[in-house]
Amino acid sequence: MSTREQSAGYFLALSPSHGESVLSQYQGLRDDKLLCDIVLVAEGTEFSAHRSLLACASDYFRSMFKDYTKESKASVVYLHMVSATGLQHVLDFIYNSCLALSLETLPQTLETARYLQVLEAVQLCSRYLVSSLSPGSCCQAANVAARFSLPEAQRRAEGYICGHLWRLLAAGAEESGLLELNPESLAAVLESEQLPGLQEERLLALLLDWLHRDRRRWEQADRLLPRIRYCLLPRAVLLRLASEPRLLRGAAVQRLISGALDYHRAESRQPVLQSRQSRLRAGERRLLLVGGVSLHQGAVSSLWTLNPLSSEWRAVGQCPRLQNHCVCVLADFLFVLGGEEPEAADQDPKSVRLTISNGLQRYDPRFNRWSRLANMQSRRAQFACCVLDGCIFALGGRCGLGASLAAVEVYDLSSGRWDKVRNLPHKMHGHACAVHNDTIYLSGGQQDGQADSSKEMFSFHPLEAQWKRCPPMSIARFGHQMATVGDRIFSFVGMYEPFCDIECYQPLQQQWRRLRPLLFDRSCYGLAVVETNVYLVGGKKWHNSQEVAAQNAIVYDTSTDTWREACKLPLPFCGGQCAVLQLMDLPEAEDKLNMELHS
What we know:
The protein is α+β, with helices and mostly antiparallel strands. The protein is built from 15 helices and 36 strands. Among the domains are: 1-132, Potassium Channel Kv1.1, Chain A (2-Layer Sandwich); 144-282, no CATH class.
């Protein structure tokens, strides 16, 4: 027993066990059928009870037992709307605060608790539904929650279905209960942005199977069919849908299918036609490694992606065999520009020569497909590229043995054409660039006629259309990389630098600041920004007086100015370029299987 002072000279004594004791005594009276003054009958089964306790626990009984109702004087009350099992469970809860729950009897218990307005029992049922979610029960849970208006349980069940839909479909749509899912929950699944590892074609097949299950369900077609993302379907599937009169009864679906076919026809303009209909229902954005060379396999032809949660790499397809190229991401497409392509020499097939390219290739993660777009006007290697105002800029670079470019050209997605803009201040290659506040910043590199690397930095704003000189870096750099994080531009190590210092430029203050150096040398690496972290992937390093390829990725945390090793690479890489792109996600289990097969 606890006491609490109420006022001078008076104390309030509180017994935490009194309420439980009284309830226990009521249960004893019920067991012994003492002082029971009402008999409830459901499905022919009688239950003795106490009016006073029923009125305290249930608003339904409280109203029933008022003086002006006929039931207030009756000794027997027939409950025609509830089951005997449900009434048994709810009465047990009223008398002892415990509710016996199972998925088999839950609908009866909920129906009775709802009808008798025992709200605490309804809340317990809702929490039980959420706690018991599993691949075998989630669809049933969603249906029960929808039937009895349990919004939180329904939302959680639908989220579970979305996260495990690939597993449910693998087990079979009928066996997992998907074909019996209520229309509201199915609509929520079709609307979801998080459906890992699921092609849109499989989602369409599920919906069509659900509709064909019962002809009355076609009344829901106009509400459900527009939730499919038709631009993510293969063209052959769209053509088949366009010939299905039953699907085309709704004007909205007709427009979506027609628009998706137009999207596929205008392949070169797809980035400017992006909409929700063409957006992947994927999870996290992934870091990609494109091109480069491996000590074991020569030029790399696999496109590798890093899972940030597991720190594991997997190959997601093929990529161009390039080095000294550039990559960028625009409208959720990956663009690969220029670089050096390996070609077998005519006289000696085993001998490989490098040819500088002016190509522009685009990777579409929706269909794991590469496309060739309009070539740049100049061949470029060891150049810089960036994205600004929805256009791709290619800046300078090496165009041949000992020959550099000052030319800058811009690719416009709408026209699919390259146009030249203001040249760089000098012919140069091996420089780096970054974008901040709609301005391009370009630093370092090697200028024509000069043997040494440069410290210079220039800026370019499209409206001013001229290059301006900025405060120089404190270190001359060549083959380095730059990255913008927040309001700072970071400059990382390049080739042949005696130290491993990095620095950052603050455009608003127009000043450079030295930061924590790497503990080891690194060059010819790929670079990507993931939130506040900058990944340096692969590259070259010195080992036993020899330059070798690195087999790890290191991370610089811009918020703490610290370095750490992020993960191992599948192979020793150098010369690869990195980007961050939203991909068609694989489920975790499938992802691990892919890694095991590849290794």
